[in-house]
Amino acid sequence: MIALAGAGLLVLSACAGGSGGSKSNNAAPSLPKIPMASSVGAGEGELDLVNWAGYAEDGTNDKTVDWVHPFEKETGCKVNSKIGNTSDEMVTLMKSGQYDGVSASGDATLRLVYGGLVAPVNTSLVPNYATIQDFLKNRSWNSVSNQMYGIPHGWGANLLMYNTKTVSPAPTSWSVVFDANSPYKGKVTAYDSPIYIADAALYLMRHQPDLKITNPYALDTKQLDAAVQLLKTQRTLVGEYWADYTKEVQGFESGNSVLGTTWQVIANLVTSDKKGPVAAIVPSEGVTGWSDTWMVAAHAKHPNCMYKWMNWITSPTVNAQVAEWFGEAPAQKLACDHTADKAFCTTYHAADKAYSDAIYYWTTPTTHCLDGRGNICTDYATWTQDWTAVKG
Amino acid sequence: MPTAVARRVLAAVMGLGLIVVYLPLAVVLVNSFNSSRTFAWPPSQLTTHWWSQAWQSTGARSALRTSVEAGLGATAIALVLGTMAAFAVARYRWFGRESVSFLLLLPIALPGIVTGIALNNAFRVAGARFGLLTIIIGHSTFCVVLVYNNALARLRRLGGTLEEASMDLGAGVWQTFRYVTFPLLRSALFAGGLLAFALSFDEIIVTTFTSAPGVQTLPLWIFGNLFRPNQAPVVNVVAAALIVLSVLPVWLAQRLSGEPVGARH
Amino acid sequence: MRAASSWLHRHTTARLLALLSLPVLWVVVAYLGALGAMLVAAFWTTNDFTGAVEHRLTLSNFRTLVEQPVYRRVALRSLGVAALVTAVDTLIALPMAYYMAKVASPRARRLLVVAILTPLWASYLVKAYAWRVMLANGGVVDWLLQPFGTHGPGFGLIATIITLSYLWLPFMVLPLFAGLERIPDALLEASADQGARAARTFRSIVLPLLFPALVAGSIFTFSLSLGDYITVKIVGGTSQLVSNVIYDNITTGGNLPFAAAAAFFPILVMVGYLVGVRRTGALEEL
Question: pTM for this one?
Answer without folding.
Answer: 0.82
